[in-house]
Amino acid sequence: MSSILMSTKGVGLRLDGREVLHDVSFSISEAEIVTIVGPNGSGKSSFLKILIGALKPSQGRMQRRVGLRIGYVPQRLQLDHIFPMTVLRFLKLGSAKPAEIAEIVERFGLVQITGQQLSSLSGGQLQRVLLANAMNGAPDLLVLDEAAQGLDQPAVAGFYRLIERMRREFGCAVLMVSHDLHVVMSASDRVICLNRHICCEGSPTIVSEAPEYRELFGYGTEGALALYRHEHDHEGHEHG
Amino acid sequence: MKGTSMDEVLLRSALAAIGVAVAAGPLGAVVLWRRMVYFGDTISHAALLGVAFALALNLPIFLGVLICALGIAALVLTSSGRFHHTNTLLGVAAHSSLSLGLVAVALLGGPVDIDLESYLIGDIASVDWRDVAIIGAGGALALGLVAWRWQRLLMASLDRDMALAKGQNPDHEAIFFTVALALLVAVAIQVVGALLITALLIIPAVAARLGAKTPERMVFLAAALGGMAAVAGLFGATQLATPVGPTIVVAALIFLILASIARRVFSAC
User: Fold this and answer.
1) A79 vs B155, B158, B209: nearest CB
2) How many beta carbons lie within 10 A of that of residue A224, not counting itself?
3) Span B48-63, pLDDT tens digits
4) CATH number for B79
5) Given B32, B33, B158, which is nearest A77 (Cβ)?
6) Cys-Cys with A139: which of A71, A218, B1, B252 at CB 3.0–4.6 Å?
């Protein structure tokens, strides 16, 4: 019963008089990987903001397990060059214990770049640092907002393998938002297709064959779907 | 009352200038990180309205400025995004509070001649020992607020959502920092005037960035550079018979230019 980390019931959101979300009921349990997919403007980022407490829903209820720890990976960091911040100093914001920092640095392969400025990192390096920071303090739930955006294909595949490893090693649940359909789906237990309301949800295979999903993403994505199946058949061996 | 010697005036001026500049450097660094330069401009311009307010109600200038700076800050923080884009709002608030302040001070002046220039670019010679104490206490309080909230302030300045996900409230940090900034404006008006406070905030901080790899380092360097600019500016002003406030700002600018050149030369080697 207590395996549910977080849930919403009938959540709606209006921004500037426009309905962004309507009647969204959702839950995520321990060690589950859930991906929310939806086109631009579908309200998926707003929904994520509601879950982490950055936006207040206009309707509905939200429940969180008491003491739930969330690790959050933002889409990008809007960091000016004027803000000096080395990788090591950034990681220390999450924990002051040297032993914990050393462990995180080791685990995420950041030894070479601890002295570098955050504003000088490549996209892939920054994603790894942001992920390391989110995992600092062993969260129950890892939340990623379009975290793979801007990475090239091999980097995306590698990044998703890393996320699967997080669940294996830390036992945390993972909630991702993405419009990158095929690569994400191969790693997910459950996919939620969102377009202001939940159009359909279920296992990746079920969702990819649902008419609602097809309507939303069109038949033009058949190439992508084929790729998805291919990857799913060879679990864990993404190409690219 | 004893007559005050020239040395005593100079000592008071030096303490006041150093006190304000050392507090302004670190606060300026945070202003830059949080992209609040325009906001800083707005509340320092509101200081002039505070002067008028203090004159009208016979309050200490420090108190009038503090109240007005906080009032304008609260107005901007609560209404930003509701009617106009924040920058639009700041533009309106900054220059209208400056103009309102100028008009009000002129009206209140009446037969007594009020020296407007002293509120615009500062009048350090008028600083007495009580003012020095107020500057010391106000500056220390502003720095203390920033030091107390330091880790959370850094997190909130880096990424709002990341702070929220950690269960912190970045809006609280915005309020604490605004209070610190208003305190600084209130103690700085006598030294550099409403027009130059922003310059004293950000020029030492920009120079400090050139030699800093971490936020802590930048804050300490900004404080040190601010203090040095205060001493150099005061010395320059007495030698050249120029106004002290602007001379301190020019000294800070010279440090920034020297730091930029030094960095160029360093990275070229």
Assistant:
1) B158
2) 15
3) 999 988 988 989 999 9
4) 1.10.3470.10
5) B158
6) A71
